[in-house]
Amino acid sequence: MGNGDQQEQQTLTLKQLQAYIKEKDYRPELKHQYMLKLFEEIGELAEAVRKDKLYRETGQIKGTIDEELYDVLYYVAAIANVYGIDLETSCRLKEQLNRTRYPAQSGE
């Protein structure tokens, strides 16, 4: 999302990521293509996981789990943008639901 060590040290929220992706790539008419790209990226993530390839071990981002997770997140955010969904709000609401559906077991 930017260059330089300072940029890498900053925290990035889901809201900021969504805004960045919306500014860069917001084409609601391509929502079906975004979905197909998401499926493609999930396949590439599966391959990277199968190869157990990590950036911290290779020093190169290409073909790593790190790269493919970003690509999946990118298309998830792009689809959320098309539908006007705030992913941070969705996360909070889903966690609330999960706490009622799957209460913590005592002793865990």
From TrEMBL:
UniProt xrefs under Pfam families: MazG (PF03819)
InterPro entries: MazG-like_dom
Name of the featured protein: NTP pyrophosphohydrolase MazG-like domain-containing protein
Recorded superkingdom: Bacteria
Coiled-coil ranges (or none): none
Occurrences of domain NTP pyrophosphohydrolase MazG-like (ranges): 32-92
Transmembrane segment boundaries: none
PANTHER family xref list: NUCLEOTIDE PYROPHOSPHOHYDROLASE, REGULATORY PROTEIN FOR BETA-LACTAMASE
